[in-house]
Specification:
Shape: elongated
Number of helices: 6
Distance between the termini: 21 Å
Largest sheet: none
Length: 146
């Protein structure tokens, strides 16, 4: 096991990465729930708010579930930022693109085109590169502090 592999396996990095992952699961759920709420209220004309404001969607339980999921995403993101550099957390957060694509396919029945699938693979490759480079950086920092 190389030094960067052991750093990726360190409890601190794993915990922080899992918090980012959890945050992005909540964020993707929020996006899918918002879409369900928007679709459910699209034909509704029984609102005191004009359709163009989007406020008519507040009558949908899907939208309120989306708000709860967004708050959960925000909270877990803040905890993750305590333990990771923003640049690393932000790039790891790109996993949300994968989760939204998967959620829209599984829940909403949306199609994932081949070009979009290739883009998702590029995101996965980028996540691996960033995780490894962060592990290498932490390993070098520990060596200079000793």
């Amino acid at each position: 096991m190389s030094a960067s592999d052991s750093k990726l396996a360190s409890p601190r990095f794993r915990r922080s990465a899992l918090l980012v992952l959890l945050s992005q699961v909540f964020e993707a759920a929020s996006e899918v729930l918002r879409k369900l709420g928007a679709d459910a209220t699209a034909a509704t004309q029984l609102s005191v708010f004009p359709q163009w404001t989007g406020l008519s969607t507040l009558g949908s339980p899907w939208v309120w579930a989306a708000v709860v999921a967004a708050l959960a995403a925000f909270g877990t993101w803040l905890v993750a930022l305590r333990h990771l550099d923003l640049g690393v957390a932000f790039v790891l957060g790109s996993v949300v693109h994968i989760f939204v694509a998967a959620g829209s396919w599984l829940v909403l029945g949306e199609h994932i085109s081949p070009i979009r699938a290739v883009g998702i693979l590029f995101i996965v490759a980028g996540l691996v590169v960033v995780a490894r480079s962060q592990a290498d950086l932490e390993t070098r920092t520990e060596r200079t502090e000793v």
